[in-house]
Amino acid sequence: MGEECIKPVKIDKIESSTGAKIKIQDDGSYIQIKEDGDVQKLGKVEISLSDCLACSGCITSAESVLITQQSQEEMIRVFREKKQLYQDGKSDLAKLIVVSLSLQPILSLAARYNLSPDETALKLSGYFRMLGADLVLDMAVAEDFALLESQREFVQRYRAAEEKHTSKSSLPMLASACPGWVCYAEKTHGNLVLPNISTTKSPQQIMGSLVKYHLASQLSRIPDSVYHVTLMPCYDKKLEASREQFFNQQLQTRDVDCVITAVELEQLLQSEDQSLTTMDSVPLDFPWSKTQSSIPPLVSHQGSGSGGYAELIFIHAARELFGFTQLEVHYKLLRNPDFREVTLEQDGKVLLKFAVVNGFRNIQNLVQKMKRGKNSYHYVEVMACPSGCLNGGAQVRPQDASSSKELTVKLEAMYQALQKQVPEENSTVQELYHTWLGGADSDKCSAMLHTKYQAVEKVANSLNIKW
Asked: Which of 38, 65, 291, 431 is the most exposed place for a label (fewest CB within 10 A)?
């Protein structure tokens, strides 16, 4: 038994006759052919991503939803509209287009086109510039913000639980960077799990705050005059960008206007009979620091290819809570490589116990443990996709006879080969804490870097059941 989309939509009644036939055109549209030969084009029923977030009928069906604001067609339309405004002498009406590149799709496209990660980033910058982008950025600053805030949040939760001498009800702290996992938790487990989910925004949404509320101000722009595109490894990032809490009602603008995935970008290039290898190499922009003269290379983080949350928070917590300054992290594999744990012990006592859990089967096992009160973890890095973000649902598929697992291993090796960034040592982030946020514990910091999630009430409707 499964559940299908139950969002009610208005369908205009079209007069039809017995014997009418439906035919699919080459462009994917539908036409009705009546008995007398008359042809009538049928309209599409459109369901927005916001509808999906408000519905409890499915978990993460972003791939099957007709996405109007989160498609490559919409992105191209905005680029063309901008070019037309310039041709008409109305450049003052054109939006500033900013593109933010996530590391995982950069690696996916690097493998697809046999380029190095840094070459791929330069080629992507050249491609988006050719389309009409004003700025092309990588997301290292947003990723470090997310890690630093997650580290701080965990230490605060742990200390609060210790002071109250509770059973650590706010622990384990569960990662919030994966929108597929968060959406599943909201719709399936509600208040059982949501208090444990980290309030720290994902790197994508922190990047949205940076672009719309810091960069725009620096460029004397208002947020709704900026069109922000992100390149991401999974379709569920479109769902995340469409959340109500990431839409400014007063300014009528989203933090992220359009999410494009690696596989969609590959399809876009193919539709134009182009290859990423033939694009000009253009340096990425780095508008964040007044003191840094050169653009830094691509960097990764110690730990998993999903960003290293568990490992970096583990090391930080061991230092801050227990004074461990030198620490080697050794994982113990459990059911499979996508379920592993790491423990900090002293004199036979467990001080910290963290886990990395990828894939919904492992996630369900984790949640069942929490339901039975048998959880022993303090923090869990949770990602919906097996092998995490490097194997995201919208990464480019293998081009040869190799398997997806072999490709993921290759991407993991590429990720680990990059220069490692230590978040605490990112001087640009520290500068932004001071100049933009007014300190790490300020109200503005909380507003820009954190969010809240809430349970989605289950709809009791027999029509949503598929036997």
From this structure: 291
